[in-house]
Amino acid sequence: MLRASTRPAYAPIRLFSSTSRVAFEHKNSILDKYKADQDTIEAPSKLASESHLPFIKQNLYKKEPRQPKTKAPFLSEQEDSHAQLSGWKEKIGQFVVSTFKLDMDKSRSGPVAGGLYFAECKKQALIYPNEPMSDTAKFYYETLKLPKSFSQQVQIIILHYWILSVRMRAMPFKYGREYQKKLVDRIFTDLETRMATEIAIKSNRTIENYLKDYHAQLLGCVLSYDEGLMSDDITFASALWRNVFNANENVDVRHVEALLVYVRSQLYVLNKMTDRAFGFGKFKFVPPDQVVQPISPQQEELIKQKTKEEFASMKLPSQQSVLSMNE
């Protein structure tokens, strides 16, 4: 039986910055070398597979890591609450929103960040014994040759959380803070549940210690990835090597470069999304076997126009938003 969760020791509020805007791209980005000649762009998975260096297994564990003994349900109350309500419940809900003038951008952070974006983070490296891996999981475990362990999954979840958090921190502060909080809370609630059910850890104290350790790792990753984002790709690649690649001295540098291109590509796509589109959960991570092509200013304006047309038809009180459709 699961026990009540008490996690004040690692409250996610410590992750938040008072900065209203965070730069998405930097002049030293690895993507810059592709802009002059778009024919040279390669998908991260293809870039990583081009190397043929021999693989040297890293001894991270004294014994083989635990594998899931069961499979916890993927969906949660957050995703379930995002389902379509019946007609009369919908009308009551719209009446309540309109009458009490609820801030829907704040309310929407739960189902979007704690539901849709949490699911995006979790599924990237999710694996179970005797089940086929997704294409994204194959990228991490077969192409990049990362160990198949729960802790490795956590590192990949943290990386994808950070990618989303960069965009969240570029939203108006009071909304970006809510989106970050809902996403972090949901990630740690899920980790706690999975350790108790899938990994079958019986000790509450052991689970709590793991959670505190993962939270410390998250804080460290946020700082190191932020430094890489605001400096150069050498610093960024070093942060990825230390965290995702477990500081493996025998790592294939081509693999680190491929992951760097993957991360920079996600940030590029997020940078081209408006606050409104991102706040409504329109972003999905680009698979590592796909290429992100730089777009022209004209194409960017066309995307914004299409976004405005889409949201112009949303007239219900619950669909109202003050988030920008221009940035």
Automatic annotation (TrEMBL):
GO biological process, one term: mitochondrial respiratory chain complex III assembly
Domain Ubiquinol-cytochrome c chaperone: 143-285
Sequence intervals crossing the membrane: none
Annotated GO CC locations: mitochondrion
Entries under InterPro entries matching the protein: Ubiq_cyt_c_chap (IPR021150), Ubiqinol_cyt_c_chaperone_CPB3 (IPR007129)
Family according to the record: Belongs to the CBP3 family.
Name of the protein: Protein CBP3, mitochondrial
Gene: CBP3
